[in-house]
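Annual report, structural modelling task.

Input specification for the L-homoserine complex:
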Amino acid sequence: MTFTVRSPASSANLGPGFDSLGLSVPLYTTLRVTPQDRTEVVPLGADLAGTPADESNYVYRAMALAARRAGRPLPPARVEIETDVPLARGLGSSAAALVAGIVAGNELLGRPLDDEAVLDVAAREEGHPDNVAPALFGGIVVATLDRLGTHYVRLDPPAHLGVTVLIPEFELSTSKARAVLPREYSRADTVHALSHAALLAAALAQGRLELLRHAMQDYVHQIWRAPLVPGLSDILEEAHLHGALGAALSGAGPTVLCFHDTRGPTAPLHRYLHGVMARSGLSGRVIDLPIDTVGTVVERAGNPA
Ligand code: HSE
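The model returned the following structure:
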């Protein structure tokens, strides 16, 4: 019987939570899976034109990862893939595809893997858990990947916390944005990073919205990536003057995330972000999004499973 799997986009790092902190937003990759006697992979929509329509598709390879972890062969199926997650923009499009694929493979196999195993397969494949954990669980997730497993704490988003994203039109590959990072950091930078990441996690857990802009300071990755994203440095310095509670590069970029208080207007922040785009020669769009609290959903014949 046909089932669908829907996985959300995500924004990783949130400033200092490099490779360890992320939240999910309601833009989705959706798979429609129908067991049948042969494998068919069908990417749908203009955004996926050019992605492979066979077993080399990233989604299908993710399904196969679930089978490998379960130690079983993957049953054949027709897999239709759609997405409204912008690709290569720092909004976790590959994590959404990876998580949706692993969950779909697990579902086809009769769910031999529990959520922790699904997360661990995804985090090991991606190399860090900060996009895949919120894509799987929704909300805000603090996570770490080590030799023994992927360990995480999921937080419900604080009341009144909303997200505004500036999504540039240009693409930036994660590998390019990781290649510009230093190999080593000083003790001062390390202490700065871990104290801010810890403060940010605690502020998010307790809904201390007034601390966000201080806690989101980062010298681990954003200063190195700023030359790749016109306007980023200005936004990190100035967004709080225009209504943002804090600002960060979203994942490896080029999307920039600002937090806002949902009780206030976001028009001044939008005007400011459009102004930065204009003076930086950037084109793109600015949208407000809630934080997705649901994560990945499997649905069979209209019933969420
Ligand atoms: N934490 C990752 C990075 C997210 O910043 O490179 C993108 O995959």
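DSSP finds ten helices and twelve strands in the chain.
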